[in-house]
């Protein structure tokens, strides 16, 4: 045991939320930190372990967001903590492109092995999801010698200038932050719940429109990459209909376009597979990873076909901190936990329990318009009963109730009406049930 005394995996409140110490600390937060930073859960955290967060007032809270899909292996996972302590005592930084070290190489070997496809693969490590997306686009443009990037409605790819440009939603991500990067073309995303065409032909119809627009409005020979989240994250856990991703991948292959899967949120056992593209056996040319990769430490990866990844001249890629040895040690511990603790199986089990409960609630509460997702990446979309009109108020009321009872739950969605569930994959059945009981009370409390 490398962490301090174990934190009991139980919800336990000793004050109202937020407690007095948190209130005082949040006043200091407001005074000292940029007003541009959001705040989901109004308490200040002191410790965390597994699926429990403990705040400075001593409340034990259930983490149903995993720090936005990061702590798949749980907070302060033993295998991660052990490797991080060993690493930080032996070497903290050299810069991999100055003097290499084994951790970086080992993480890349694992990424190459885990990515779909039996072809030769190579990887690059950076610090954040946005930086990884930027590098994937940069490499795809260099490889194809083409400028255009195709992205989708409801997409989220990050907050840097290029990734903001790739992201769909104006508020809060883009408003007033332009001018944006050029050569970015946005296509319709098949959104089964809100589709106006026939559900049975949605995948085909969407693909037909997109391929037509790429051919007529951009020209296939100008397209470097098609970039897509196999299940959209911030956009509201939109799962494209079966057949859509394979059709895009085939189209890309046929036209020499680099097909990039942004698995930053959907990867690393979240959906019950190593990556969400595994579900339909789609083999992307490049996969971008971050969030769940390193058990909470900042790390991200770009993994792709060796010929694409090697097409860049020496020293064309890099960065001071990318693939920091401590973050790599954490990733090795996290991936070990995913394998040894069989977290794909856990994600499927959580998906079953969660999905059953959410569908049961949908039967009782007509404001739950849609239940969707895969494995431990599920969401509900709230509407005004009997319509598909977004119900932001109900979403806020449910979150407020859950917060007051010590359950941290995240929201999402273009229409600000989606509640998304991203529990750590190591969460116990008892804690999962407790959180879902609170969710049920929240719906019962709505007027
Ligand atoms: C969070 C996210 C990103 C950006 O990652 P950061 O580490 O926050 O830069 C990119 N793509 C997807 C799908 C994400 O969910």
Keywords:
447 residues; alpha/beta; Aspartate Aminotransferase, domain 1; Aspartate Aminotransferase, domain 2; 2 domains; 4-stranded mixed β-sheet; 13 helices; binds pyridoxal-5'-phosphate
Question: Layout of helices and strands, plus pairs?
Answer:
Elements: H1 20-32, E1 45-49, E2 52-55, E3 60-63, H2 66-69, H3 78-90, H4 102-114, E4 121-126, H5 129-144, E5 148-152, H6 161-166, E6 184-187, H7 202-218, E7 223-228, H8 244-254, E8 258-262, E9 286-289, E10 300-305, H9 306-309, H10 325-340, H11 343-364, E11 368-374, E12 377-382, H12 392-404, E13 407-408, E14 410-412, E15 418-421, H13 429-445
Parallel strand pairs: 3-13, 5-6, 5-7, 7-8, 8-9
Antiparallel strand pairs: 1-2, 2-3, 4-10, 9-10, 11-12, 12-15, 14-15
Helix pairs in contact: 3-10, 4-10, 7-8, 11-13, 12-13
The protein binds pyridoxal-5'-phosphate (PLP).
């Amino acid at each position: 045991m490398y962490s301090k005394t174990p934190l009991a995996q139980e919800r336990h409140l000793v004050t109202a939320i937020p407690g007095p110490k948190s209130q005082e600390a949040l006043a200091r937060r407001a005074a000292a930190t940029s007003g541009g930073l959001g705040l989901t859960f109004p308490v200040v955290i002191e410790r965390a372990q597994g699926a429990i967060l403990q705040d400075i007032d001593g409340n034990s809270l259930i983490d149903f967001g995993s720090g936005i899909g990061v702590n798949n292996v749980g907070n302060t996972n033993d295998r991660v903590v052990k490797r991080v302590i060993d690493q930080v005592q032996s070497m903290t930084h050299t810069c991999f492109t100055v003097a290499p070290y084994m951790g970086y190489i080992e993480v890349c070997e694992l990424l190459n092995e885990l990515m779909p496809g039996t072809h030769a693969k190579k990887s690059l490590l950076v610090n954040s999801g946005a930086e990884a997306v930027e590098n994937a686009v940069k490499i795809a443009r260099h490889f194809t010698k083409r400028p255009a990037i195709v992205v989708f409605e409801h997409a989220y790819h990050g907050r840097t200038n290029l990734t903001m440009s790739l992201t769909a939603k104006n508020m809060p991500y883009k408003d007033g932050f332009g001018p944006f990067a050029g050569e970015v073309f946005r296509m319709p995303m098949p959104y089964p719940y809100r589709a106006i065409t026939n559900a049975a032909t949605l995948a085909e119809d969407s693909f037909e429109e997109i391929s037509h627009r790429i051919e007529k409005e951009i020209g296939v020979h100008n397209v470097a990459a098609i970039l897509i989240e196999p299940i959209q994250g911030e956009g509201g856990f939109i799962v494209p209909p079966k057949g859509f991703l394979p059709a895009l991948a085939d189209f890309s292959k046929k036209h020499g376009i680099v097909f990039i899967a942004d698995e930053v949120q959907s990867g690393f056992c979240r959906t019950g597979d190593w990556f969400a593209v595994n579900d339909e056996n789609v083999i992307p040319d490049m996969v971008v990873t971050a969030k769940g990769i390193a058990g909470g430490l900042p790390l991200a990866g770009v993994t792709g076909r060796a010929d694409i990844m090697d097409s860049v001249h020496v020293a064309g890629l890099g960065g001071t901190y990318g693939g920091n040895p401590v973050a790599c040690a954490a990733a090795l511990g996290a991936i070990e936990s995913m394998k040894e603790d069989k977290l794909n199986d856990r994600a499927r089990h959580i998906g079953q329990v969660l999905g059953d409960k959410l569908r049961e609630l949908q039967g009782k509460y007509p404001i739950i318009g849609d239940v969707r997702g895969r494995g431990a990446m599920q969401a509900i979309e709230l509407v005004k009963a009997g319509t598909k009109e977004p119900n932001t108020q109900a979403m806020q009321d449910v979150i407020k109730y859950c917060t007051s009872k010590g359950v941290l739950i995240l929201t999402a969605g273009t229409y600000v009406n989606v509640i998304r569930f991203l529990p750590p994959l190591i969460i116990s059945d008892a804690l999962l049930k407790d959180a879902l009981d609170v969710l049920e009370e929240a719906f019962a409390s709505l007027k």
